[in-house]
Design brief:
Largest sheet of chain B: none
Distance between the termini of chain A: 58 Å
Shape of chain B: extended
Order of helices and strands of chain B: HHHHHH
Mean pLDDT of chain B: 78
Structural class of chain A: mainly alpha
Number of helices of chain A: 15
Mean pLDDT of chain A: 84
Helix content of chain A: 55-70%
Oligomer: heterodimer
Helix content of chain B: over 70%
Distance between the termini of chain B: 54 Å
Number of domains of chain B: 2
Number of strands of chain A: 0
Radius of gyration of chain A: 21 Å
Chain lengths: 343, 174
């Protein structure tokens, strides 16, 4: 009986596969950016809870949807209907504005990240600088949230976040300089095109290590989660946020994680390049999730660093390594290997 | 279309600059300054200088405004979030009047004397790759000296800060 239905089933499957891999479908899902980034950030919340649960021998979210995959959406709906509790002297308008601004800032860099050939919202010549410029706005907004909450935990968290992100911005700029030297462009699409032969993680392994470490600090993830140190500061600068502002701030940090992982993928892991059996955007998202999973595993396995170690690492080790990376790149170019990546 | 964008950005720059000066709380003033500088970056983009605009945001908003915010928070800890405001005296009012008249005169002179061309020229200045090549080759020595000057300033500042800290009695270093 069902053997007769098999060809029909196969046809339906083929059709579904054709639709999923068609360019129109990919453009609808990935190209507007908003949907892709929003859903991926929600997915990352679930993924983190699952990964941490595995490390700690727990099960994690289970009931909402398949293996709890709808849990972030349920949480979001719950937070939307929750009461907004603020301290008496908190600056409610400023907090709301900053939470919204944080969300906008987290989404903004996604515009410059290519998800495939031609699948980029803004194909800017200064894409890399644009992403870093937007990233540099985070500390001030977070500091304003910490100040406007009128709570010492929030304020200390905001100050720590500021110190950390400002100190790590310099190694961040320097660590990608090698790529810019090799490709001769700041356009992220062209940087991905230059990696079709060999990903930059191979010649720029020092830069990759520095950039990944800096990304952890910029994202306030373990081992650099001092701004959110829950044993000392309750929840850092997010302590006094509740309801919708909390949801915005929380989701903004996961969006930033997604965008930062996508940036690592774009710069060092070849972006959309991969075997042809999967469409290009799928490769980008897959690599991004793998990078994010590494961040989660690090959170489950590493302790938090002290403030002085954090600053000393930034100024002495990472800066020196970033400069060493530049010298290695110069050496590579002077023996004529630069032409491999030049486009 | 560029006209609307230009007017909107100019409005943003001017309004937020006034807000930065007039805000009761210094923190709001800093926020106003940030918006004003972002507006200036937008004007740079309209002029076709994206690279400059990005560095305007990254350096001025990302670093200078952060520094201002940080200073405000360190200096004015808990008390006195409201700035004491003085009533402008007679001299102050006269000053405002004179400043307004001068501004009006300058604006009038610019409108009368400078011809406003309807179409902006296609490109200003040198292309960035050429500028970078020049900076790295023929202007390398001035660039290095500039870096040394800034480095010396930073080291001097650090030394001063360190001396200050050691003077404190039973100061616990953090």
């Amino acid at each position: 009986m069902w053997l007769q239905a098999l060809p029909a089933l196969q046809e339906i499957l083929n059709l579904a596969l054709r639709i999923i891999t068609s360019r129109t479908f990919l453009e609808i899902v990935f190209f507007p950016g908003f949907l892709n980034v929003m859903l991926s950030a929600a997915f990352l919340v679930w993924l983190e809870r699952k990964v941490i649960a595995r490390i700690q021998l727990r099960i994690g979210p289970l009931y909402a949807g398949l293996s709890g995959i709808l849990q972030p959406i349920a949480d979001g709906v719950k937070l939307m209907f929750k009461e907004m509790i603020l301290p008496e002297l908190a600056d409610a308008k400023l907090l709301m504005l900053c939470a919204l601004g944080l969300m906008m800032l987290a989404f903004a860099p996604a515009a410059a990240i290519p998800f495939g050939e031609g699948l980029v919202i803004a194909n800017m010549d200064v894409g890399l600088v644009y992403v870093f410029a937007v990233m540099s706005l985070f500390p001030s907004v977070i500091l304003l949230i910490g100040w406007g909450s009128n709570s010492k935990y929030s304020f200390l968290g905001g100050l720590r976040s500021l110190f950390q992100q400002v100190a790590y911005e310099i190694p961040m700029w320097l660590s990608v300089l090698g790529i810019v030297m090799l490709t001769g462009t700041l356009n992220l699409t062209k940087i991905v095109e230059a990696q079709q032969r060999l990903w930059f993680v191979v010649p720029q392994v020092l830069g990759f290590a520095v950039f990944f470490t800096v990304a952890l600090a910029e994202l306030e993830r373990t081992p650099f989660d001092l701004p959110e140190a829950e044993t000392e500061l309750v929840m850092g600068w997010m302590t006094e946020l509740s309801g919708v502002p909390f949801m915005l701030g929380f989701l903004a940090m996961y969006t930033k994680l997604y965008v930062m992982s996508a940036l690592i993928t774009t710069l060092f892991l070849g972006g959309w390049s991969g075997p042809g059996f999967l469409p290009q955007p799928v490769w980008v998202v897959l690599k991004t999730f793998i990078v994010a999973s590494v961040v989660f595993v690090i959170r489950g396995t590493f302790p938090r660093v002290r403030v002085d170690i954090l600053l000393r690492t930034g100024w002495t080790r990472l800066l020196v390594l970033a400069f060493a990376n530049i010298f290695v790149t110069v050496a590579l170019m002077s023996i004529g290997l630069g032409s491999v990546w030049r486009i | 279309m560029p006209d609307i964008a230009f007017l909107a950005l100019s409005g943003l720059v001017i309004v937020s600059a006034i807000f930065a000066l007039e805000a009761r709380e210094l923190i709001y003033g800093a926020v106003g300054l940030a918006f004003s500088l972002i507006g200036v970056a937008g004007l740079f983009i309209l002029l076709g200088a994206e690279y400059l605009a990005m560095f305007q945001i990254s350096v001025y908003v990302g670093a200078v405004v952060v520094l201002i915010l940080f200073t405000i928070m360190l200096v004015r800890r808990e008390s006195g979030r409201i700035v004491e405001e003085e009533e402008p005296g007679r001299l102050g009012r006269a000053g405002i009047l004179v400043a307004g008249l001068i501004a009006l005169a300058v604006a009038g002179a610019i409108v009368i004397l400078v011809p406003i061309s309807p179409e902006a020229p296609e490109f200003y200045g040198v292309p960035l790759p050429e500028l970078g090549r020049d900076l790295a080759s023929s202007y390398a020595v001035p660039l290095v000296i500039l870096g040394l000057v800034i480095g010396a300033t930073v080291i001097g500042g650090l030394t001063l800060a360190k001396v200050e800290r050691e003077k404190k009695p039973n100061g616990t270093t953090q």
